[in-house]
Amino acid sequence: MMLCSRRSLLALAAISVGATAIGAPAQSDRAALVTTSITVSGAVENSLTLGVDDLRAFPTQKVSEVPLVCQSGANVGKIENFRGVRLRDILEKANVVAPAHNDVKKMVVIAGASDGYRVVFSWSEIFNSPVGEGVYVFFEKDGMPLADDQGRIAMVSTKDLRTGPRHVKWLKDIEVRKIVD
Ligand SMILES: Nc1nc2c(c(=O)[nH]1)N[C@H]1C(S)=C(S)[C@@H](COP(=O)(O)O)O[C@H]1N2
Ligand SMILES: [Mo]
């Protein structure tokens, strides 16, 4: 049968490897993606490295439920009973460097994960819009550390219309950058 030829088997193997690469990471891969601290760098006076205990030392908030909706509109579950720190409070501690009156308006905050996933916020969104109220770096669910599927530190922007995209699993770094002169 055609399908049993050596070449077809190799082709099938290649397809299945490709499918794994674009799908959700397997259980073992998720464990390898887990982050236990984050860095805050770029246009800040104080670069920071924050582990879970450091995050706990900030004012923390408890959030009871956030439905997760993908960019496609598909419902992809929810995150419940988590505790986190507002991104705004972390950036205030890092102290964004913006000497000119208009500098902050030209700045973005890039949140990166250990799998290379990255999302951006504008400074104005975080500090001058209702969105900023709901952007959390979180580290606890039901009083327990976050599991490997997103742990131990993640981020979510709870006031987004579609919350999936800026739910950053395995959060690794936060970079502040002025993107126009
Ligand atoms: N680190 C990381 N976080 C991520 C993603 C990703 O690929 N990597 N995908 C995002 C998108 S687009 C969605 S909809 C949800 C999907 O979460 P799920 O894979 O647990 O369904 O995670 C978000 N957070
Ligand atoms: Mo998504």
Describe this structure in words.
The structure is a single chain. This protein has 181 residues and is an alpha+beta fold. It has a single domain, classed as Alpha-Beta Complex (Sulfite Oxidase, Chain A, domain 2), CATH 3.90.420. Helices cover 23% and strands 35% of the residues. The chain is built from five helices and ten strands, in the order ααββαββαββαββββ. The chain has helices spanning 6-22, 27-33, 52-56, 87-94, 123-127; strands spanning 37-42, 48-51, 61-69, 75-86, 107-113, 118-122, 135-141, 144-145, 154-157, 171-178. A five-stranded mixed β-sheet has the order 2-1-10-5-6. Strands 3, 4, 7, 8 and 9 form a five-stranded antiparallel β-sheet that branches. A hairpin with a 2-residue loop joins strand 7 (135-141) and strand 8 (144-145). It is globular and about 45 Å long. The model is unreliable at 1-21 (pLDDT under 50). The structure holds ligand MTE and molybdenum atom. The ligand Nc1nc2c(c(=O)[nH]1)N[C@H]1C(S)=C(S)[C@@H](COP(=O)(O)O)O[C@H]1N2 is lined by residues 24, 70-71, 76, 113, 115, 117, 164-165, 167-170.
Q: With helices defined by DSSP (H or I, 4 residues minimum), what is the helix count? A: 5
| CATH hierarchy: architecture | Alpha-Beta Complex
Bound molecules: the ligand Nc1nc2c(c(=O)[nH]1)N[C@H]1C(S)=C(S)[C@@H](COP(=O)(O)O)O[C@H]1N2, molybdenum atom
Order of neighbouring strands in the sheet with most strands: 2-1-10-5-6
Strand content: 35-45%
Count of discrete domains: 1
Main CATH class: Alpha Beta
- CATH topology descriptor: Sulfite Oxidase, Chain A, domain 2
Order of helices and strands: HHEEHEEHEEHEEEE
**Rg from alpha-carbon coordinates:** 19 Å
> What is the SS-derived class?
alpha+beta
Give the biggest beta sheet.
5 strands, mixed
What oligomeric assembly is this protein in? single chain
The residue ranges in which pLDDT falls below 50 over 5 or more consecutive positions are 1-21
Q: Count of DSSP E strands?
A: 10
Spatial shape: globular
CATH superfamily: Oxidoreductase, molybdopterin-binding domain
